[in-house]
Amino acid sequence: MLELGVPLLLDTCAVIWIAEDEPISEPATEALNGSYRDGQPVYVSPITAWEVGLLISRGRLACLINPQLWFRRLFDGRKLHLAGMSPDLLISSSCLPGRAPRDPADRIIAATVREFGYTLVTRDRLLLDYAEQGHIQALIC
After folding, report:
1. What is the pLDDT of residue 2?
2. pTM value?
């Protein structure tokens, strides 16, 4: 169950689906709409910029504009905010409890959720499994 008033952090997959107007789950849509309605910020990790760049450079995400512009446009007209990413957070990502995902970007996302008390919006099975372990709060998108 999603706690009311907890800010959301969009995982890279959620960012891409939202930017590309792809459907997301009803609970994720309701949570996002509720955040916007209540003036609650929705966050995106800076590591998502890196992941989007990799996806575009590897041909796994079609993009007719440069990745920097794609990422900047993500924030246009949306009430999205960039999450913090300090050296302490990056160090924390290497020391996560439980069976954390091995992927460095996923670890940074998980550490960000833990650091700021966000609820993660994702479809990444490994991050959802990490949430099921009780280490982060997540909502499937």
Report:
1. 56
2. 0.93
Least Cα distance to 80 among 18, 22, 30 occurs for: 18
The pair of structure tokens assigned to 46 is: 């800076």
- Asked whether the beta carbons of 71 and 52 are under 8 A apart, the reply is yes
> Which pLDDT band holds residue 65 (cuts at 50, 70, 90)?
confident
Nearest to 9 by CA among 109, 90, 103: 109
In whole angstroms, give the CA distance from residue 130 to residue 137: 9
Residues 55 and 62: their CA atoms lie apart, in Å, by 8
What does DSSP assign to residue 96?
A: -
Closest CA to 71 of 13, 16, 8: 16
Query: Cα 103 vs. chain centroid, distance in angstroms?
Result: 14
Q: Report the alpha-carbon distance of residue 99 to residue 116 in Å, rounded.
A: 20
Q: Cβ distance 14 to 121 under 8 Å?
A: yes
pLDDT band at 20 (very low <50, low <70, confident <90, very high): confident
Distance CA 20, CA 135 (A): 30
Mean pLDDT calculated for residue range 88-99: 98
